[in-house]
Write a structure and sequence with these properties.
- This protein is mostly helical.
- The protein is built from 17 helices and 2 strands.
- A two-stranded antiparallel ribbon has the order 1-2.
- Helix 1 runs antiparallel to helix 6, helix 2 crosses helix 11 and helix 7 packs antiparallel against helix 8.
- The protein is globular.
């Protein structure tokens, strides 16, 4: 999957640098920050090109395959604000070093995985490290670039490194699996994590914000449990049954902890999330558009990864190519995006970007899953990359220009939170809908396969254990030739339903953006972007 995040905590009232950086230290700090965000983004995108290989090697169910991606994104989403505060209070350089080491420990766990459970655990540990690296990498650069010109160069370098990470990941994982095992992909990134920790410790200047707000542990725990419970219910629903006690209990727990989080944020003097910002209708609309739109984008990207890997069984390197194309678009058009943001503002860019994403997903949905050639995919892939670049470049500017200047830091941090929430929900909801649909279609057509009684028993056992994805990849002897086309068609129908949902989500985000943010050119006040946020 492909993703881009801009995580940060709200800026402190005053910045303090433990060191007065020399020109060499200034350059080293930017290098360290760029290495850190590149590492974090590589980890986020890493599984996209090798989902199919992971599924076949570990014989994972569809739900487990979804968890492998979301296990990384959940901590990156729910812990970023807390790590931002920790960096402000105790030092961003320390967060770079320890975040990279934690991520490295997670990759070591993944590199030795012999089961889906161990791989999911490794991904979760790596996600905790990434949750520290995303905000700290940006804050350490902005704290050490005091002039507008230096800050602009620093932010441009940070954004380029993030895009580079998303571009490197599919090729790296594809090449590793092509010539070795999927475990080597995680091992290589683990080595990069150790090198990043060493580089950060040697090159980066320390900075902190002594006046930073205190940690809101009750709020952090409440929102983390609420999101985890929600994802558990969504992901496990197709396999455990939507009416099963664990799934229903998960949804009830999610609602209860979300209510507790809202109550906590209303009552605390220094909230993790300022709920009064949502009294501004346009800001609320912007946040909703962000959740819905990023759900649509990443859900579509996850759908694509399953299509080329787990359904079409393309080689890892070949499965990496679509994601290289998508991520390759943004660096080429980045100068244009900056000019558009200055000249016409975020509203028209968001509308155009979301429409481009919806068009790309409907286009991809129209392509037969039996066609494995790259040329028909180029159109929707380029549209995906164009839409993604337009949306991501405009999101933060849209949010901060809707609130008072004193609230821009919290507005930018809130945008990061809701963006990550949308990205986390994308694979979960698309996977749940697709797998439920595929299981129903496969079961309905299984009678036409001409299976013997013994074959029907074997196929039924595999289906109950891992769903249609497991049936498609399992070695079932003569029965494989009978059921594989049915499983592939059922999965194609299921994931095409997922693409329809993501396209509708992107169109909904476009409508919300048009109605509340407008189609007219409105140049944003970029000076209001907080020091610890980029666009």
């Amino acid at each position: 999957m492909v993703s881009s995040s801009t995580h940060s905590s709200p800026p402190a009232p005053a910045e303090a640098s433990s060191e007065a950086p020399s020109p060499a230290r200034h350059t080293g700090t930017i290098i360290a920050g760029c290495l850190a965000v590149c590492l974090a983004q590589i980890g986020l995108v890493l599984p996209a090109a090798i989902n199919g290989v992971i599924q076949r090697t570990l014989q994972t169910s569809g739900a487990e395959l979804t968890w492998i991606s979301d296990a990384f994104m959940v901590p990156a989403a729910v812990l970023a604000l807390t790590f931002g505060v920790l960096g402000d209070r105790y030092g961003r350089k320390k967060l770079l070093v320890y975040g990279a080491l934690v991520a490295g420990a997670g990759y070591a766990l993944s590199a030795t995985a012999s089961s889906a459970g161990q791989l999911i655990a490794g991904q979760a540990v790596s996600g905790i490290g990434a949750a520290a690296l995303f905000p700290a990498s940006l804050a350490v650069i902005t704290a050490n670039t005091p002039t507008p010109a230096a800050r602009a160069r620093g932010l441009a370098s940070w954004t380029t490194a993030l895009s580079l990470g998303a571009f490197i990941a599919p090729g790296l994982s594809g090449a590793a699996v092509e010539y070795a095992s999927f475990r080597w992909a995680f091992a290589i990134v683990g080595v990069l994590a150790l090198l990043t920790a060493a580089a950060s410790g040697r090159l980066a200047a320390e900075s902190r914000a002594p006046g930073a707000r205190s940690l809101d542990w009750p709020g952090q725990i409440a929102i983390a449990v609420a999101l985890l419970a929600l994802l558990y219910g969504i992901i496990q629903g197709p396999s455990d049954g939507w009416g099963s006690a664990p799934v229903v209990g998960a949804f009830v727990a999610s609602a209860a902890f979300l209510a507790a989080f809202i109550r906590r944020e209303h009552r605390t003097e220094r909230p993790m999330l300022r709920l009064d910002l949502f009294r501004i209708p346009a800001f609320t609309a912007s946040s909703v558009a962000t959740v819905v739109g990023m759900f649509g984008f990443l859900g579509g990207a996850y759908d694509l990864s399953i299509r080329v890997g787990a359904i079409q069984h393309q080689s890892p390197l070949r499965a990496a190519v679509p994601f290289l194309v998508i991520q390759g678009v943004t660096p080429f058009i980045w100068p244009l995006l900056v000019r558009l943001l200055h000249r016409i503002g975020p509203g028209p860019m968001l509308v155009t970007g979301f429409i481009s994403l919806a068009t790309a997903q409907l286009w991809l949905r129209s392509l037969p899953v039996s066609d494995t050639s790259l040329v028909p995919l180029l159109g929707p892939l380029v549209l995906n990359g164009l839409g993604f670049g337009l949306v991501v470049s405009a999101l933060t500017a849209a949010a901060v220009n809707l609130v008072p200047p004193s609230s821009t830091g919290m507005a930018a941090a809130t945008t990061s939170l809701v963006r990550d929430l949308g990205q986390t929900l994308g694979p979960a909801i698309v996977g749940a809908v697709a797998l439920s649909t595929a299981a129903t279609r496969f079961a309905g057509n299984l009678g036409d396969a001409g299976l013997t009684g013994a074959e029907h028993h074997v196929v039924g056992a595999v289906l109950e254990e891992g769903g249609p994805l497991a049936v498609l990849s399992a070695q079932l002897g003569p029965a494989s030739a009978k059921v594989a086309p049915i499983a592939q068609k059922a999965l194609a129908d299921g994931y095409n339903t997922g693409l329809l949902i993501t396209a509708i989500a992107c169109l909904a985000a476009a409508v919300i953006s048009a109605v509340f943010l407008g189609l007219r050119s409105t140049t944003p006040d970029l000076a209001r972007l907080p020091a610890s946020e980029g666009i």
